[in-house]
Every structure is written in C-alpha cells, then in structure tokens.
C-alpha cells in the first residue's frame, strides 16, 4: 500500500503513528522534523542471507567454475587468513556497504560470529547471527560439538542486545551429518531459534545426496524433523513442485539469492511457483565473493526481472511482491515479523528514504515500480535502525574512520597469497 | 588489456597517445591535465539498441503481459501523444540519463528521428539514427515509402554532422513486408548503411512467421538477402544453433538486451553460444518502458550473470567480454569500429572515468571485474564525447535547464490518459 504525503512519527526507537503529513505538523509539533519531499519511505531492507566478511574476497576470483573457485581460491584464502580480525574487518566493510544501500538487518552465516556481532554493534545494524556448524574443522572450531558450544556461549553472552537475534546455521546438507542435524533440530525447538541453511543450491548437491543418503536433501531434512516454520531454506534452485508443496505445508521460508545463483551458474529458482504456493519468500545477497554487491535494491530488481522469464509470465513477481520479499518476507523468515519489516505503529523504526529524483528516475507513475525497476542504492539518502539515524544524505553517521586501512591490509595479504 | 598508471593524451577530439602517466607529464606538459587517481578509464559505452523517447513511458505500466502492455498502454499512449515534441523531450531526458551513466553513443530506433537527432546534438552525444520503417501508418509517416522518404531526406540534410551516423531501421519481421525489406536491402547496399531490426524476440513471433511465411524470420531475412555484416539483429532470444551459425557465417552482429528480455518474459538469449561462434555481440538497454533503466553498466552485469546460468558455466561471458560487448562490440555493430569503441591512438576520444572507491567497491583485485560486477552508473564521474567533457564529477555540463519541466508536462498528460 502506497500512502502519499504522509509522515511517520517515531519515539523511543518505535513507530508511534503513520498519519497525513499535515496532521503530523500539528499533532507532533514538538518532534524533530525531517522533511523528505522527493522521497519514498520504505521499511528497512532485510538481507536474509549473507556471509558478510567475504567482502574481503569481493572479486578475488571471478568467472571461474564453482569447484575451481572454491578449491583454488576461496577455501585456500580462508584457510590461510580466517581469524576473528578478518571477520571483524570484513563485516565492518559489509555493514558500511549494506547500511548505505538501505539494508538495516542481515542474516549472517560465517565463522567467528562474535566478530561479526562486534562489527554489527559498532555499525548499529540489526543482525540475525548464525551459529554456524560444519562437520569439518576450521580456525574457528574443531568439530560440530565445538561449533555448537561456541555458538551457544556467544548467544548466552549476547542475548540481551536489543538489535541481535540468533539462528542455528548448519551450513548445508552436504557439510552436516544426520547426527548434527538431529541435535540442532532438538536445540532449535528448545530455544525457539530459526534454522538457516543452504539447500538445493546446485544439481550436484542433489546427486550427491541421492548417492550418499538415497534421498534428495529436502526429503532427508524432512525425515530428520527439520522442516517447519523456523526453517530458512536458502537458494532452493533445483526444486520440484512436490518439494515446493512440502516446504509450503511445513511453513518454511525460502531465501532467494538471484545474483549468486546466476554468477555461480547454479540455475534458476522457481520463485513464482513458490509465491503461488504461498511460501514466504525473502531475498538475500549471499556473500560478496559470489555477487559481488551486498545490494538488496539490486536483488529486488534482478529477482523481479528473472522471475518473469523463468515463469514465462511478465506478471510474475511484480514490483510490490519484490519489495515485500525484501522487507516483511525477510523479517518473517528470521522470526522478526512482529518487530520489523513494515511501517506500522508499534514496530521498531527501521526505515529507509529513497530519493526519486534525477533524469534516471523521471517520470514517476508508480513509486514502487520506480523503486524496484529504476532506482539504485545510490538513491538511498537516509537510513534509520531502531529509530537511530545511521545514514544521512548518503553518509554513514558512525563510519569507522579506520575502515579504509582495515580492508587495504587484507587486500594486500590476499593478493600476495594469490600470486604465490 | 588493463594498463595501470597510464594517461590518455587527447587533441582535437581524437586520442593522440596512450602512455605511462609519468611520461605524459613530461611529453604533454602544455596540455590541460585531469587527474583521476581512483578511477578506471574505459571507452565510452555504446547502447546498441534503444527507443530513447520512451523514457516518457518509464514505468507507465509494469508487470503486465506483453500484449496487454502494448495494446492497453504503450500503443494507446503513442497513438495519442506521439509528436516531434514528445520525441524531442523524451530523447533529451534519455540523453541526460545515458550520458550520466557513461553512454556516449546510442543506436536509436523510434519515430520522428529528426527530433531524436536534435536532442542528441543538444546533449552532445554520438548517435546512430535509425530511419524507421513499419508497414502501418503513425503520426510520423503514412506508409513504407513515406517512412523511407522522410528518413532519407533527414540523412541528406544531416550527413555532415560529425557525431551522427544512420541505419535503416525496419522495425521487425512481423511489421515489415517482403517488398519493403527488399527495397531496404537494396538501399542499404547502395548507401553502405547498417540495417537495425528486432528479430527472434519472442516465441510467438516465430510461430507467426511460420504461419504467414512458412519459414522462421531469420530464414526469411536470408532469402530476402538481408543477412550480412551490416545487419544488426536485436534480441535473438529464440534462436537455434543452426541460426547462430547462419548469423556467424554472414558476419551479422547481435544486440543482446538482457533486462528487456527478462522483463517482457521473452526468454534467455544464448549469448555464450553466440560468442563461441564468433558472432560480434553488442549490448542494448531497449527502451525505458521495458527495462526501466538506460544503464549499460547494469546491462553488462545482468548479461554477464545471466549468461552463466543459461550456459550452466560460471566461465560464460566473463567481465572482460561484457565490457567488450558494451564498447567495441557496439561500435563494430554500428559500423563505427574504426572510429570509437576502444582507447587507441587515432580513434575519437569517447571516454568514461569510473571512480572505484567507497565501501561498495573495496577491496579491488581486478578493475574490470569490479567495474562489471560491483560498480554502478553512480560511480561514473567524467564522460567525454569526441574529446568534449560532457559530464564532470557526475554533473552534466550542458544540461538543458528546462529538462524537469519538459518531462513533467508529459507525465501529467500520460497519467490523465491512463486514468481516463
């Protein structure tokens, strides 16, 4: 729903009232006013799947086949450089990029989540922090029990943080065993946490599951009791209608990451079919190594365009549905639908102003259409998280002064590694 | 090829020399210097297919099926509003958008080309002006002979303009008769002009051709003698390998318009196969009614991402190939490959500087990859056409002061029409 000439009253970080601008001038005369005459005000964008610290590997090795990319570049770089400092600096860079692009909340999956948390708090962003689990050792943890112990300890220390929530983040069906999945299922039910994982991303993932488990990954997850409203199923590219129905029946959310699916040649997720089956669909950027932008305005556009050609229907994923997926769809997937994702009294004030001006955005017949199909993140002017102004006229309000040097050090380190 | 720390010396609108920056300071000490320390300098982008004046219908009727969109919105709006003034104002808006986004040359197909020419000259852009022909009457012309007469008269009047070239622009196989195509083929050979047309855009176009002509459109064009190095075949979405081979054998160019093909649900052009068959591929935005951005940086990214998923190969259409298509590929398609499209001594100085700075573009391992996958048109800072600075620090140097009011008048007119 588009309201024209309206105002949003914010108090103590919450949305107090949405009302005609003329009434607001009278009723809230004591409030500080920010006038945005050429703008649309939208809910803060929710990036429902990312690996924030991978900004440090943005463009490190593009245009390569998936396994050469992973085995020849990404994994060696991670093996050599992964550390709390790497995650802190990479996530700080990601937060700067995301905030400037109107993203107020991100669903994070990476190693050393305590460092990602530190960066998010420093930036003043809302974060759903993944308690990552894989079956192999990394610099972060040695085995599934160690990953879980570290993740849960972090949650115990940080659960009072107002902008922070947590998800279990078992990486993917091909990196997590049945036993670990069962344990996570039990813990997630006990603690009422979402479960965030990659699933049905590539054709080879499905083949491997059939060979190793005799069933496709979603069927395996069903047997393990993982399907339910708390499941955040990322990608779902190679998925049949029966599986879409299964996800719908269990109330699972799907996170669509169109740029990443294209860049890694994973394929085309049938988003139109998912929406028609009433699945809650969210949007994600994935990490900057496979996108290479943490830009949800761009994902909205890509998703809306792509869905039409995939469904052979120019009405598929219209602009309003893309905006819904990037806001309330994401919030619901993360279990935050009652707190954020829309501009409603009582919700936290995560808000983004986008200036619809300049020759690129003229004329304007439908502001939502303009936002999705014509605007870019460069048109974002103001961003509030929990009522706090984080971006004003395109400038970060609490930008870490050391940001440039922090990523520069990593660029030098990763380049020298690539050359060796 | 990426050269670091280099300078481009420009004199009388032409590129005089490309040399290390340190040498340039000595050798060209008398020249005006523009230092661009964080930038990449690329050839001006060539938008190889657009209908510029359709900016006035940007977002007028999105998310509709093709025929409802055309018959219910676009065609009625054109019938009611099409005029020289409409084309002048719409093209002026398009030129402002394109220049700011690093596009220095566009291949135009629309009615009243004399008005598009006026706008292009006013903006200082290079333009390949289509002499449009369709078999039905419009406000512009009454029948094919009238279209051709008007187009050729325009060419006769304007052929001395240094930034202007001409193409025949028979709209599409389904709007142009055999007789008209034959006549255009003869004239094009006589006058040595390219022939620019939509072809194999939709599945229904092919079906209709089979029903009416007994052959698919490209085979019909072959029989009519239209295939050759001067043919600019736009879209080529529904195309078989034998047809790709046919285009390759005849040296035709293909203009890929990925955003438009997705938005109208036309389908997926097999660009990787075309490149592997050594077809010259260019990129186009199509009109703003079906995109809705005249943004070739965005088309490069969309093309590069999409080609990978279509070819199921993450190596398809790498960043360097996307940049080639958007520059030299476009120039060659228009028959301008000897004048523009690359940064080489002797070519005209159509140049674009893109600033690779800010958290969105850090770190940078490969400037071309960064340009295609991470940068946006908002990072374009300087644009030269024929050696003249048209954009400086993102601002148009000769922006028509009346631009805003000009499109506003049309927005009001088109909105009132949509409501009626």
Radius of gyration of chain A: 21 Å
Structural class of chain A: alpha/beta
Widest sheet: strand ordering of chain A: 3-12-13-14-15
Main beta sheet of chain A: strand number and arrangement? 5 strands, antiparallel
Low-confidence runs of chain A (pLDDT<50, min 5 residues)? none
Instruction: Give, in order, the helices and strands of chain A.
Output: EEHEEHHEHEHEHEHHEHEHHEHHEHEEEH
User: Quick one: overall form of chain A?
Assistant: globular
Strand fraction of chain A equals: 15-25%
Distance between the termini of chain A: 55 Å
Largest interface: A-B, 69 and 69 residues
Helix content of chain A: 40-55%
Number of strands of chain A: 15
Please identify the oligomeric state: homodimer
Number of helices of chain A: 15
Name the average pLDDT of chain A: 96
Description:
The structure is a homodimer of 420-residue chains. Chain A is α/β, with parallel strands linked by helices and 420 residues long. Chain A is 42% helix and 19% strand. Chain A has helices spanning 21-27, 66-81, 84-100, 113-123, 144-158, 178-191, 203-213, 217-223, 241-249, 258-263, 271-276, 296-311, 319-333, 367-374, 403-419; strands at 6-11, 14-20, 39-43, 45-50, 103-108, 126-133, 164-170, 195-199, 231-235, 253-256, 280-283, 351-355, 380-385, 388-392, 395-396. Chain A has a five-stranded antiparallel sheet, covered by helices on one side. In chain A, strands 4-5-6-7 form a four-stranded parallel sheet. The longest helix of chain A has 17 residues, at 84-100. Chain A is globular, with a radius of gyration of 21 Å.
């Amino acid at each position: 729903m588009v309201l024209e000439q309206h105002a949003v009253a914010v108090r103590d970080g919450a949305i107090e009232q949405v009302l005609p601008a003329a009434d607001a001038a009278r009723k809230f005369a004591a409030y500080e006013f920010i006038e945005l005459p050429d703008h649309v005000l939208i809910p803060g964008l929710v990036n429902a799947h990312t690996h924030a610290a991978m900004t440090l590997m943005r463009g490190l090795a593009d245009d390569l086949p998936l396994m050469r990319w992973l085995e020849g570049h990404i994994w060696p770089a991670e093996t050599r450089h992964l550390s709390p400092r790497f995650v802190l600096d990479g996530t700080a860079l990601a937060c700067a990029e995301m905030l400037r692009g109107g993203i107020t909340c991100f669903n994070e999956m990476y190693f050393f989540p305590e460092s990602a948390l530190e960066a998010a708090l420093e930036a003043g962003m809302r974060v759903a922090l993944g308690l990552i689990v894989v079956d192999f050792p990394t610099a972060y943890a040695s085995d599934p029990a160690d990953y879980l112990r570290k993740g849960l300890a972090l949650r115990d220390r940080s659960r009072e943080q107002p902008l922070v929530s947590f998800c279990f983040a078992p990486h993917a069906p091909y990196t997590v065993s049945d036993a670990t999945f069962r344990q996570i299922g039990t813990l997630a039910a006990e603690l009422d946490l979402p479960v965030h994982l990659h699933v049905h991303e590539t054709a080879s993932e499905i083949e491997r599951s059939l060979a190793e488990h005799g069933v496709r990954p979603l069927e395996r997850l069903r047997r393990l009791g993982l399907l339910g409203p708390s499941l955040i199923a990322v990608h779902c590219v190679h998925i049949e209608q029966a599986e879409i129905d299964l996800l719908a029946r269990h109330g699972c959310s799907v996170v669509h990451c169109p740029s990443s699916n294209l860049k890694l040649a994973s394929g085309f997720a049938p988003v139109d079919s998912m929406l028609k089956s009433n699945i809650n669909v969210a949007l994600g950027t994935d990490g900057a190594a496979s996108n290479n932008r943490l830009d949800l305005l761009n994902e909205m556009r890509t998703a809306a365009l792509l869905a039409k050609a995939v469904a052979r229907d120019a009405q598929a994923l219209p602009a309003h549905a893309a905006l819904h997926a990037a806001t309330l769809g994401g919030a619901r997937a993360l279990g935050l639908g009652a707190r954020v994702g829309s501009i409603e009294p009582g919700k936290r004030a995560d808000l983004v102003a986008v200036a619809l001006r300049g020759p690129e955005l003229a004329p304007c017949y439908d502001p939502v259409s303009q936002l999705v199909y014509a605007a870019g993140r460069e048109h974002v002017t103001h961003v509030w998280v929990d009522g706090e102004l984080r971006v004003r006229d395109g400038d970060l309000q609490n930008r870490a002064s050391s940001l440039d040097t922090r990523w520069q050090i990593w660029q030098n380190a990763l380049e020298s590694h690539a050359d060796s």
